[in-house]
Structure formats: C-alpha cells, structure tokens
Amino acid sequence: MARILIGTSGYSYTEWVGPVYPEGTKAGEYLDRYGTLFPTVELNFSYYRMPEAEQLLAMHCQSESLLFSIKAHESLTHTIDTAVWRNAAATFRSAVSPLQEKGVLGAVLLQFPYSFHYDPDRRRYLDALVRSLGNFPLAVEFRNGQWYNNRTLEALRERKVSLVSLDMPELQSSPPMMDVATSPLAYIRLHGRNKETWWGSDSAARYDYLYSEKELAAIAERVRGMAVAAQLVLVYFNNHRRGQAVRNAMALQKLLALGEVGPHDR
Amino acid sequence: MYSRIGIRSSYSLLWGVASPKSILERLSSQGCPAIAITDRDNLYGLHACREAAQEFGMKLVIGVELTTPEGSIFTFVRTVGGYSRICRLLSQKGIRQNLDIAEELANDAEGLVLATKSPRLLGKLAGKVPDLYAAITPRWLGSIPTARKLGIPLVAIDDASLLLPGDHDLHVVLRAIACGKTTGTLTADDREPPDQTIEDMDRYAKIFESWPQALENTGRIISACADVPLFQSLVFPEYPVADSTAEVELRNRVLKGAEKRYGEISDAILGRIAYELDIINRKGFASYFLVMDDIVAMASRTCGRGSGAASIVSYALGITNVDPIAYNLYFERFLTMARTDPPDIDVDFAWDERDDILHAVLERFGKDHCARVANHNRFRARSAIRETAKAYGVPDSDITLMERQLFDSGLSGITDPLWQTICSVAARIEGLPRGISMHCGGMVITPKPVSYYVPIESSVEGYPLLAWEKEGTEAAGLVKIDLLGNRSLAVIRDALQNLREQGIHVDEQTWHPAEDLKTVEALARGDSMGVFYIESPAMRQLQRKTGRGDFPHIVIHSSIIRPAANKFINEYVRRLKGGSWEPLHPSLARILDETYGILCYQEDVSKTAVALAGFSEAEADTLRKVIAKKAGGEKLARYERQFFEGCRQRGVQESTITAIWEMMLSFDGYSFCKPHSASYAMVSFQSAYLRVHHPGAFMAAVLSNQGGYYRAQAYISEARRMGLHICGPDINRSRKQYHAEGSTMVVGFMAIANLCTTAIGSILRERSTGGAFTSLEEASSRLSLQRDDLVSLVAAGVFDSIAVGMARSEQLQRLLITPRRNQGKNGQGELFVAETPFPIRADRKLPVPRPMGKTEAELHREFEALGFLREHHPLLLWARRIARVRRIRAVEMPAHVGDKVFLLGWPITRKTVWTKQGLPMDFVSFEDETALYETVLFPKIHERYRKLLYGQRPLVVSGTVHDDQGALHVQVESMRVIEGS
Amino acid sequence: MTGDQASIIHVNVTNFAASVATSRDPSLADKAFAIAREGSARRIVIAPSRRAMEEGIHAGMPVATALRMVPTLSLISPDASACAKAESAMFEIASRYSPTIQHDSGGHMYLDVAGTTRLFGPPVDCAVRIRNEIHNLLGMEPAVAVASNKLVAKIGTRAIRPSGITQVREGDEELFLARQDMALLPGVGPTIGRLLAVAGFSDIGQLASLDDMQVEALLGKRGLALRNAARGWDTSVVDPTHLGARTIHKRVDFSEPAGELEALRAAMISAAEDAGLDMRKELLACTAVHITLFWADGATSEGKQLSSHPLVLDAEVLEASWKAMQQAMRRRVRIRAFTLSLQRLLPAKREPDLFTPPGPTREERLQSAVDATRLRFGPATLTHAAAVFRV
Asked: Which residue of B841, B845, B846 is the best one to mutate when testing the A interface, meaning the one whose CB has the most A CBs within 10 A?
C-alpha cells in the first residue's frame, strides 16, 4: 500500500492568519507553523518567480520534515519561448536539485494552461521538457481536454511521468475526471468545485470553496483507489481561500486515518 | 528347423511392431532357414527385408497379406509374373476401395501361392486357384473342416505381428494412433488379440506336431517361391532411335555438343569422350543419357548436381556446365565398370519451371511409365512421445509441460507411472514407419508400366508415387532421376532476359564468368549478397578471411563450409594464408594438397581410407555413405575398427589415426563431392558476374524470385549500397516482377502486400491497351479496382508519380470518390469537386515534419505495405529517436578494431548454433544506413537479449569490434531497443 | 446534481482470465504467464498477465510466437469456473449500486446508475467505490468509465486500460473521442483500420467530422454507422437480460407478398447485415440464427441454424441466415414478412470490422451464393441478383 501524504497548494497566505496560523504569526514563521500541520506542501510561488537553490534550501531548513512539491516556472509551461526555454529549464533544475539531494522533493508539477493544445509541436515540446527534467519525479496537469487520450497515457507511462488527477468544477470542455496511474507516483490536485467563479474571476474567488463531508468521503475513495497502483500518493488542496484548504485537508487526513504528522521517515 | 511364413513387420503401418531386421535376427538365431514377411496390403518393407535376409543369410519369399472384408489372403510370389500381379493388384486396391480381391485372384493368380484361414474365402477360391492352401496358425485350426470338405491342403503360417509378448502394448498404441482413439476406447476389431506373438521355434514345432503335412507344405511354398529372379538388372526404357541405335545417337549428340562447348575438338577431348562413352555403352546407359538430354532441353537452364558433373558427356549435352577437363574432375567419381549401382544424374531446374518439366516428362514418357520416389516417414522422438501420450488420453497441455521437463532434465525426473509407460513405449515406437509421402525430386521412368515393377499410389499432389524410398528404388534397379528446383537459375535467366530487353546480350557460348577479374575481386571481398550458394554471412566472412575469389577456391569454400567442420575451417584459413602445415600422413600428401591437407570433399574420405587403411574402393565408398547417413551404430563401429587396424598395419601413429578419423566424422549429414561443388560454383560465378557487371538486372531478378537467404528489405538496402537507384512501385513503370532500366531498379507490384493478382493483371492490361496514366482521376476511371486494392496501392505509393505533391491520404480519398462521381447518380458526386479533399476540421492535418515530403504516418503505411521503404532505409522510421543515440556507423568499424562501440542495428538475419555444452548462441547480421555487419552473441548474452531479436525494430548494439583473420565482427555485450518517441 | 448527467458505468477487467488467475494465486502477480486453451493446432493467447503484456505478449497472439519471445512464459489453462465465480462476485458488487446491470461475460459489465444519486452520490463516486470494492474483495484492478452511453463508456475504458477510472461528462463526448486513437473505436477491425489509416484518419474525431455523403464514399453505405459511433452516438440501453438469453431481432414486411426468391434473398441480405451491424456494435457474436416466415395465408414456418463456432462477420451471418431461410421455405405460397433473429450471443473474441467494406471478396461471395441457388432452383429463379445488392 502506498504512502499517502496530504497538504495544500501554497502555505503563505496572509488571510490564513487567524483561521490557520495563530494571530500575530509573522510571514517568516508560516512555514514552521505549516510543518506542524502537514507532511507536504505544494509550492506555487516558483511559477511566478524562478526559484533559487539557496531559497529552497532555506525553506527546507525551516521545516525539515516537509516534502516539497514544486510547480514549474511559467516560462516552462505558459509563456514558452522556443529560443530560451532550455536555459530556464536549466536554471529551474539547478534550483530544485538540492531538494532532491536532501530527499525532500515530492514532485515537480508541470501545469499547462488551456491554451496548451494537443498538437505535434507541443507534444514534441513536452517530450523535450520531460527529458530535460527527467531526473525529477514529474507530474503533469493538463487543462485542455484534448490531452486526455490513450496516446498521452501511453507516452506518460513510457516516461514514468504521472498524470495529475484533478477535482474541479464540472464545466463544458474542461478536462474529464481521470485517475490513471502512469507512474509509481500519484498526484491529486483538488481545486474546489466553484462553477460560478471559475471563469473570469480572480483566482481568489475561483478557489473559494469548501468541500462538504460527503464530497470529502468520495475524494477519500479516489485517494484509496489511486493508492492501489502507486507507491506514493500526494494530495494537495488548492481551495486556499480563507484557509478552507487546510480544513479540508485535515478532515481528509482524518477520513483516511492517517497518523499524526511527525518527522517523516525516509 | 522350420521356415516361417505369414509374419507382419512394422511396415504394416501403425499395426506391426517389429522391424524386418529384428524379426529375421531373432528367427535366424533359432535356426530358421527361410522366411516370408507378409505386410498388410503393401510392399513398403521389401527392401528392408531383402537387406536383412542378406545380412542373416536367410532365404526370403516375397509376399503380402491382402485384406478383404472376409479375412486375409496371404499371397506368396512364385514367379516374376506373380510379382507383377501383386504390384498391379496393390496399385488398383489403392484406387478402388471396393475392389473384390478374392474375385480378382480367382480370375488370375498365375505365379502366386495363396493361403487363407477364412472358410468363406477358401470356398470362393477353391477350384479356381491352382496353388491354394488352407492356413492354420498356432492359434487357429478353424479352417481344417473346410479344407477337408474341399480337399484343400493345409499350410502352417504364423499370422503374427508381435516379436515378444510385451509388444502388445506397442501394438495397441499404434492402433490407437491409427484409429484416432485412445488405448481404452479401442474395440476388439481395431486391434489384434494379445497372444499374436511369433512363437519360438521349439514351441512352434510342438504346436504343429499333429499336423506334419501343414509344416511340410510350408516348406513346399518356400522352395517354390524362394529365388524368384527379380531385381537383377537395371530398369530403364530403351531410347527409340529411327534407323539407328541409342549408342550411335548419343555419340552424335555428344560430339555436336562438344563442338559447341569447345570449338574444335582436340585429341584430349576426343579421348575423354571416347573413354566415357565406352563405359556408358558397356553399362547400357546410352538411353539414360539421351532421356536426360531430352529433359534438360525443356528447361531454360540447368545445373548438374552430384558426381554427374564430372562427366564430359554430361557437359557436352548441356546437362552440366562445368568443363571436367579444365577443372580436373574425374569421371570415375561418377561411373566405373566396377560399381554396380546406376549413375545418379541429379539436375537443378529453375524453381518455377520444375513442375512444368515434371509434367512434360509424364506427358512425354507416358503417365503409366513414370512415378515419383517416396519418402518413408518415421516416428521421431518428439512425435513418438506426443502420439503415444495422446493414445493414452493425455491432454495436449500436459504433453507440452512434460516435453519441457524431458528437455530440461531427461527421463530421470519422471516419477508418474503413466508417463514412465508412455516414455518407454515411445522409445520403442521411435523410428517405426508411419506413412509415406513424396520425395522432393526423384522420379523413375520404366519401359513397361511402373505398376509392373512396383505398387503405385497417388501422392497428395496428384503424382503417381512409388511404394519405395530412394534406397529401395535403387536396390530394385529402377533408375532414378532427380529433378530439383533452384531459384538462382531463375535469377540468372530473368536477369539475362531483362538485359536482352535493354539491348545487352550475354553470349553464353563465350561467357566465362570464372575468368572475369572483377568478379573474382568482388568475391574475394565477400560482396556476394544475392549470389547463388555463397551469400550467407558465414560464407561472406570466409571469403573476407581468405581474400580469395577465384574458381578453385570458391569450389573449396562451397564444400568446406559444413556445419560440423568449423574448427577445420579456421585451420584452413591459417594454412591458406601461408601458415605452415604438414600432410596428415605422407601417403596423403598428393591427395589432399589441393585443399591444404584438409579433408574437404566427400571423396576425400574414401580416398583417405584407401590410401591410409587399405580399404578397397567399394568399402571406402560404403564408409563414406555410412558416415554421411549419420547411421552410426554397429556398421560405423565395424568400419572404425577396420580403419584403425588398417592404419596401424601401415604404421600410422595412433594420434594421427584419431585425428584423421575425427576429421572424417565431420562429414556426417551434409557434405559435397568436388564435381558437385564445382557445378554449384559455376552457377555462383554466373550470378556473381551479373551482380558485378549488371547490378540492376541482377538484383531485380533476385528480388523477383524471392528465394534468397535474406528478406526483400535486406536486398533493397544492398541494392542501394551498390549504387542502384530504386524506384516504384509505380503505376506507370512497374511490372508484376522487379526489373531494371539501366542502373535503376523498378520495384514490381508483387512487392505490395495484400494486393490481389487480378488487380495487378488489370492494371497491366489497361496500361498496355490504353497507355500510361496521367492523373489520379484518369487512373480511377480507367481501372475498376476494389477498395482493398486501392488501399494497398496508395499505401505503397504507386500513384505518387501522377499525384505530385499530394498526400497519400488525399489520394485515397479521391480515388474512392471519383467512381461515384462518374456514376453521376442523382448528381450526388458533384458535391465532391475533385480539387477539394474532404472538408475535415482545420486541425486534422497534423504538421508532422515531412522527411523528403512524406509524413511519418505515410512512411509507416508504406513500410507495412512493402516491407521496406521506397527511398530510405527503414531506420528513417525511427529518425527522431535515433538522432539522440551516440554511435559509430557500420562503415566506420574498421577504424575501431578492439574498441567498445555502439552501433544501430536493424536485424537482417540470424543463425543459432549450439555450443559443446548444448547452450544456444547466435550469429546475427545487422545493418545500419551505411553497411551490413556481423555480430556474435555468446550464450549468456543470447539468453538475456534473444527476445529483442524477434521484432522488426532497430536496436542499439554495443560490444567490441573483433578482427578475425581479416573479417570484422562485433562481439555483443548488450543490446537495447531505442526508446522514447 | 442534475438528473441528465452521464450515468452509464462500464467496468472492464482487462485480460480477465489472467486477472482471475492472479487473484486466486497472488504469487502469479509478478509472473509472466498467459492463459491459453489447449489444443495442438494453433494455440492462441487468450489473456496475458501484466508482466507478460510488458514483455510484448498480447491476446490473440499464437502461443508459439509468445514462447519464442518469452521462453519462460508459463501457460495456464482457462479456469471457467473460477472466471464464472469472479464474474458473479463482480455482479454482486455492482448490484449494490444499481438494479440495471448488463453483465456481458469476460469481465465486462455495464451499469445504469441514473436515479441512484440520492442514495450513493454522483455516478462517478459510485464508479470509484465499485472499482475499489472489486479491488479489495477480488484483488482485480478494473478499468472503469462513466459516460452518457455504453459506447462512450466503453471507449473510455479502452482509453485508460489496463486500469484506472475516468468520466466523460454529458455533452463532452465528441470532445473526448476526438483525440482518441482510431483503433479504440468499436467496429474498427483490421480491414477498416487499414483503410482509415491510409486515408489519413488516425483520430476518432476525424471520422466524426465526415458528413453522410463523405463517409459513404469512403466506406460504403454502412460507414454511417461507424461515423455515428465516432460521434459518440449510441442509443442502446443497458440490457439486464442475461447475454445468452438476448437476441438481435429484425423484421421485414413486404409491401406486397413476395414470391420471387430474388426479392426474398435481397431482403434477407439487408436484414442479416443490419442485424450483424447491431451485433458487432456491441462487440458480440452469435451461434444461432433463427428465421420465421409469415406466409400470405397466415401460416408461419421456422428455420434455425446452429453453429459450433461464433458467427461474427457478415459472410458468416449471411450464410447461416440463408440456410435457415431455405429450411423454412417449405411451401408454395407467397411470403408476407419474415423475421431474423441472432441468438445465443456471446462476446466476440476479436475486434471485428463493423461491416465489410464493399470489395471483391464480397461480390465473389455473393456470386457464389447466387450460383449455388441457381443450381438448386434452376437458372430462371435468380437473375441479376448481384445488382440488387450493390450499395
């Protein structure tokens, strides 16, 4: 049976002071705090700002037990420039490598936007990107439904890259729900189910959602299902608004009867 | 002691359990002087019986048990006419199921002695057949009352099939196999009762004590029937010549032919001709040569096999193509006055002409006067186990499991008593005959109808079929001719034809390919893919190691490359390159100098036995045959003793004797005599010449005839490396076969998988009547082809030249639409304007890079359709993955001897051999875009990577480059598929 | 949740026989083995294990080839009773979630969970639980898909196999199918597959985008059915009847009672082809064909053909139908109508072409049937028959 680790997407939200972190917690102390709550975290800042090795190492030192998953920089997934992406990939690689060496890298998340169509150029690009980041455990999230076909799955299996399992509002043309193990790592992202605000609102509103007990029970079943074929299951709640992600994540931990957080053994 | 008659041997197929030899051996040891084996409804075993009778010094009566619904009639041959009567009866019985044998015999039993234990049959035959006996057996006296009533004399017969009481198990299993039942479901009618054993002589005498007249009559039959003068002369029809004799006619034809071959006939030539003709005539073979001459004249070209190629008569007649004078071939290998067996002229014909020639022979000499030689099929180890297990009702899956266990650990691991029984029965069944089939080329022609000499059946293929295999046929004096198929003769024929079309005429009278320097050089380099007999990787490597491509060496190489002769080959190469060597023995010096002191040809075995151990010519010849047959056993052991003794008497050292004997044993199975090698080498040279000077026509012919050592793809690559331009298949240029236009080779429609022949025919017809096609639309309307064929044609790129720049997918769409438009049904077709393909979604066309203008998908379809690519090496299909592989190219290998290298490998061919320890290892030929190369996979590596060799996909091969006496190969250390996409 | 959401669940245990063997003997889990029936002639792999699959062994491959590729491959005979047990256990799990279950053998099961939302939550949640239960209780990992109809659900499981779960939302069917490999579309067998590949159609969506006329030109009249499937159209219902008890039924009424053998045969060919199409759409084969003739005077008569091997292709169904028809033709009266039913259905072992694209083999075959009839009934009975059949 796989090890299941639950966390949230990001930890550094000022609005969490109160609902999650004790009043008066300073920004510099968030990660310490977070580390007492969950065994893993998905870092999102690396998408907007190219991460640096020292910075990531410092975070590791701050909370040594945390397993980090890290979202790839936008220049690798959203604003791809054929001339320079290889440099960006190299920079990203050298920043993340220390985490892997320390054994605290969960996965690198490649999240592609809706505009990343299933076409030969992009397929080749993805192949090249996967090869350039090949030493890391990789998880790919597609927002364009075209990618959810048998050829993509075969290609991911061949390269041992995981397909991110999604939970998000059921909207026309958004990706189908698909839990398929394509590598020993299962990666689940829960975006909430706020249909009304998904398009055309700011991200804060988009991720404003609290899963109900019933919904969490169903999600727990999905996690168990993924745990059959995988060795490690990473689950991240992205409904971060007002710390709802934290409440849901804790509830899910309980549902899955996962033990208290401690320094994880590896 | 009494003679014994009415015994069934194992030639009573799937009934009798004991070989004639074992029966005769046993009875002879008990003092039995004469015997009549009577098998059920056939004479398959006659030759084996005669051999055994000779071995044990017994008299043999020829007989057969003719089965009828009312019982068996045991029939014994008293005269030559009686023998023929049986042959005809058996032949008829095979054709007419309901033939009333008793009736037939009642009408005509001249020259036969009959015996039956059936009262009804006795009644039917009494008074009509002069030599009729009522049979009593050790277990049956029921015919006595009838015999008394009708006044028919009694005779004692065995009527038995079992040699020992324990043989009944074996009989039951054979019957179960024959009836498709299990041992448990056989009924009493399907098999004999358990006590049908051939009684020991003492008991036999005791049983018939009270019937002395019956025993006497047995003796009477023996004395009446033994020593029938059969099989004492050769059987061959007289060649009819008006106003002259066959001998004169033969001489005329030979002289005429020799003049053509040699120009003016010198005294030496004339002398040789006279010498050969004298022997031929004295032995009475003039007609035989004339017949062969007629047969050969029907063919476009031929190649003599075997010792027949050592004859100037054969050469002059065009039966063979090697000049025996120029190449030192001795007629004595073929015919001498001393030998009694008939000459054996085996001839190869172009594979696609052979059936026609066989039919023409039937036509020419009369269907009743010709028959094909049979094979006697026997149980082999595997089929014996499988069939026996099935007879015991064991399911297939269990058999498969047990086969593996047997293979892995042998008999010792078997504890299941059922399987112990099965294995012991199977061991006794192994080697028993189980049926007859047709030999691949042997045929006899007879003056009287064949069924006068031997029973005839009909083969599955519809040919008249003799009851006997090769040995039996020969022993009976029937002169056999072997007509075999050979693809390279068709290759040469087609290439020459293709050249004639282009205005290039090779005059065969003055064509001496063996003297062509460029050809010799090419062969010395091992450039011989497609060349007859010397194109295998092993052969090409040997060519490279020796660096010799002249005729005498090619003759040696064609012969020395036997499976069992590997270590002698290395020694041969060493000596050829100047390594020192001593003759095995001074008395062999002259004999083997030509082959550097190494036994090379079949006749070297006999020559050695004569020179070193004092064998007579005849003994030496038999020794050679015994070794070649892998017969082993007692005969071989006897010869081994004789050889060692003989050598010792001549003072040969013990170690030398052992070494020579071992070398002689390497001739087991498969080996050539020198005339045969020379004859083959001549064909090799003809094809090699064409390859060097007319590569286009040659390779086209190789591909058209489909029969070489390699797949089409390998020849296509080779053609490219030879600098040929490959084109097609093309709607306007292709024929059914491949052909060349100068240095362009045009792929034929035959290369396209799944294309039906009627489609090819209709394309060619339409093109010849209506001229070339200029557009897809035109092709579509002129040809009414079916969907499947259009798919195949488009996939193969046949229309590319008239649909310039158009994707094949679009071609197919248009071809499928046009006919509808032409039909103009309700004007529907108008919706499809030919210029616009399907208005499929804009993102349909995936902008995959188009190497040389074709999409990857198109190339894959093309490869599926053709098995190769029209313009590229198939590695192109993996181009993107390959780009990332670090490797050297195969042409660069010479610069990397001793290095560990990585190469791309497209598997071409492979050969598995077993090491002394019984482990499999592989010799695999690969190629990349630049060259072909050879590799070796030793057992461990073979075990690990063998499964990679089955797919049609490129591998990354890594290993060390070795230079083995001038021939390079890679000793493989690892292999992997190219991953990623 | 809305009521019209996709509610068909398809559960498919890939290589069922091998999965059953593994679940009964967990030590097999990591072994390369294959299920193959015994029989010396030409043994075929029925189902490879996961490991064997990774080694390149696939169902339908000759055992001899498989053994060459993997000499250590062990062969296991299919265990019919174990498979039946596993199937009924699967059925029991499924029946906790829906009363409407179509249980095709070979590890296939369709459920309609419409209307069970209040009890068990949305269909996809149901599907997840069914999958987990099958794993927990039976040790097998199925592929499960949720869609608005059986066809799309089936393509869904094919897309993700060997295991996993997916959901195609109502309305997203065409989008989902658009980029799936053509080979996933039921009805694309060897012949049609090759034709489509050469014509440049690699994705299901490309076929879906053809209009009626185009697809007819490409594949013949029956191409429409395949095109519609490519669009994800499927109106068949989850049929809880036991597969063996189901039939595929066609009825032809003549506007005027027919007396000509020619007309009858033409009608029968089209009925047989329609029935065959329906059958192959569901990837089924049959072993019995039943014909009822309704005579003009009100009488009826029947004919039936049984087959020892599964009938899949048009040619096979047609031959059996025609024999059954001839059996039933015992009277000299005109015929008002007839019915054709394909019975004793079972899953087709191979992926058949949905129909035979018109081609030479077909016409030759028809011609020979026509000739046979002529021989039997005299030359005048049947003329120009082939013309009637041409599409």
From this structure: B846
- pLDDT digit string (tens) for C318-362? 999 999 988 888 777 888 899 999 999 888 877 778 877 776 444
B362-367: which pairs have CB atoms within 8 A and are 24 or more residues apart? B362/B463, B364/B294, B365/B237, B365/B291, B365/B445, B366/B449, B367/B464
Mean pLDDT throughout B749-762? 90
Counting one residue from B and one from C, how many pairs have CB atoms under 8 Å apart? 87
CA quadruple C183, C185, C186, C189: dihedral sign? negative
Q: Which residue has the higher pLDDT, B685 or B461?
A: B685
H-helix segments, B601-673: 602-613, 617-628, 633-649, 654-665
Closest of C358, C385, C388 to residue C217, by C-alpha: C358
CA angle at B454 for the pair B449 and B455, rounded to the nearest 5°: 95
Q: Is B141 exposed, middle or buried (0-12, 13-18, 19+ CB in 10 A)?
A: middle
| pLDDT, mean over chain B | 88
ipTM: 0.79
- Contact yes or no for A180 and C166 at CB 8 A: yes
Residue-range definition of the domain harbouring residue B736: 724-872
What is residue B208's DSSP assignment? T
Q: Does C172 touch chain A (CB under 8 A)?
A: yes
Interface test with B, best of A115, A117, A122, A124 (most B CBs within 10 A): A124
**What's CA B876's distance to the chain center, in Å?**
39
Cα separations in angstroms, C344 against C241, C305, C347: 12, 11, 10
Distance in angstroms (rounded) separating the CA atoms of residues A157 and A150: 10
Q: Do B979 and A158 touch (CB under 8 A)?
A: yes
Same domain for B76 and B98, yes or no, is: yes
Q: Which CATH class is domain C8-13+81-175?
A: alpha beta
CATH architecture assignment, domain C243-389 = 2-Layer Sandwich (3.30)
CA–CA separation, B680 and B672 (whole Å): 10
Q: How many CB atoms lie within 10 A of CB B253?
A: 17
What's the CA gap between A253 and A260, in Å, rounded? 9
Cα–Cα distance measured from residue B481 to residue B445, given in angstroms and rounded to the nearest whole number = 8
| pLDDT 10s digits, B531-579 | 999 999 989 999 999 999 999 999 999 988 876 677 788 889 989 888 8
Q: How far from B750 is each of A199, B714, B811, C24, CA to CA, in Å?
A: 60, 17, 21, 51
Q: Which residue in B783, B782, B781, B807 sits closest to B794, CA to CA?
A: B807
Of all residues in chain B, what percent carry a pLDDT higher than 70?
95
Distance, in Å, from the CA atom of B329 to the CA atom of B332, rounded to the nearest integer, reads: 9
CB C321 within 8 A of CB C302: no
Asked if CATH classification 1.10.150.20 holds for the domain at C179-230, the reply, yes or no, is: yes
As a whole number, the mean pLDDT across chain C is 83
The pLDDT assigned to B849 comes to 37
- The nearest alpha carbon in chain A to C123 belongs to A218
Question: Within 10 A of B462 (CB to CB), how many other CB atoms are there?
Answer: 7
pLDDT above 70 for C40: no
Question: Do residue A150 and residue C181 have CB atoms under 8 angstroms apart?
Answer: yes
* Residue B91 parent element (H or E): helix B80-95
Q: What are the residue ranges spanned by the domains of chain C?
A: 8-13+81-175, 16-80, 179-230, 243-389
Checking if the pLDDT of B413 tops 80, the result is no
Q: What is the strand order of the sheet C284-295 is part of?
A: C248-258, C335-347, C284-295, C300-311
**What strand order describes the sheet that includes B739-741?**
B725-727, B744-746, B739-741
Length, in residues, of chain A:
266
Beta-strand ranges (E) seen in chain C are 8-12, 33-36, 45-48, 74-76, 100-102, 108-112, 143-147, 164-167, 248-258, 284-295, 300-311, 335-347
* B145 and B104 co-located in one domain: yes
Handedness of CA B498, B499, B502, B503 (dihedral sign): negative
pTM, 2 dp = 0.81
